[in-house]
Specification:
Radius of gyration: 18 Å
Number of domains: 1
Structural class: alpha/beta
Number of strands: 6
Oligomer: single chain
Mean pLDDT: 84
Length: about 290
């Protein structure tokens, strides 16, 4: 009997008692049109250590010890653009950086890690002041995270054992933290009933959203930590970055997309659905079988 497939094209098991959902965003800067939050769902007992070991091996392979602090983590945008730790183009030429990024993006399919994501379109925000724009971006971040979490909730209800639960870890962002907390608490049914009612009625998100609210399998509030405080957040960072690049239809991403989703980028989302909507997520499409 074939099991459903994750976004990375691998079978999903339902045997693990505890899962961690590591979620990170891409696209919060002003020059991006879409904001993505991706979540990597990791079985605490069988998947966490192999994933950590794989990332540490890539750090050792691509970043000499002299170039990295003790809390070094990969950031997809730095690898792609050659910034921060990778600004020395002699030491870190483009192809070497891209190969490192391909290796990171291949981890979900190699280790069999389910990936979910939510996205919102930022070009519909019209705040006149910096304060208004910051508030709008914070809302879009919280909205995308909520869609991502609904995808994780859908996975936990559909493919995890009845007794399994999951926790949510998100990179700490001082500008969006308060809004993220309010929306996540509302989706858990902890206060803010009007916001939960809005989420159930919102027509342009993932189909069936109302069926997964309030959250039952994603327990507790959001755990906010820095990337160095939750080592596997850097994998969610890479997933969010490549998904955003695909949704924004950035050119020249074929090799990176192939590393992330070997069965083809259509597994992420149909671009026509993105062009015609303001928000969405991958909760159903992540588990589609191969055609």
């Amino acid at each position: 009997m074939n099991l459903p497939l994750s976004l990375s094209g691998v079978e999903i098991d339902g045997q693990s008692p505890v899962r961690f959902v590591y979620a990170d965003e891409s696209g919060i800067s002003a020059n991006e049109t879409i904001l993505v939050v991706a979540g990597v769902i990791i079985h605490a007992d069988s998947k966490w250590i192999p994933t950590e070991q794989r990332i540490r091996a890539l750090i050792d392979k691509y970043v000499p010890e002299v170039d990295r602090p003790r809390d070094f983590v990969f950031r997809a945008s730095d690898l792609f653009h050659g910034t921060r730790a990778f600004k020395d183009r002699q030491k870190y030429p483009l192809e070497r950086r891209l190969q490192a990024l391909r290796d990171i993006l291949s981890i979900p399919s190699q280790i069999r890690l389910p990936v979910v994501f939510g996205w919102t379109r930022k070009d519909r925000t019209f705040g006149e002041s910096k304060k208004q724009r910051r508030a709008e971006v914070a809302f879009e971040h919280a909205h995308a995270l909520s869609l991502c979490v609904i995808g994780a909730e859908r996975f936990m209800r559909g493919w995890a054992a009845p007794f399994e639960l999951a926790t949510l870890t998100v990179e700490d962002n001082t500008e969006t933290k308060a809004t993220v907390k309010v929306m996540h608490d509302a989706f858990r049914g902890v206060g803010h009933p009007g916001l939960l009612k809005w989420a159930k009625q919102y027509p342009q998100d993932v189909e069936g959203t109302a069926d997964f609210l309030p959250l039952r399998k994603i327990v507790d509030g959001v755990h906010f930590v820095g990337k160095s405080g939750a080592f596997l957040l850097q994998l969610a960072d890479a997933c969010a970055w490549i998904i955003r690049c695909y949704l924004e239809e950035k050119p020249g991403m074929e090799g990176l997309l192939s590393a992330f989703v070997p069965r083809g980028p259509h597994a992420i989302e149909t671009l026509d659905n993105v062009r015609g909507h303001f928000a969405g997520g991958s909760a159903v499409r992540c588990w589609d079988k191969l055609a």
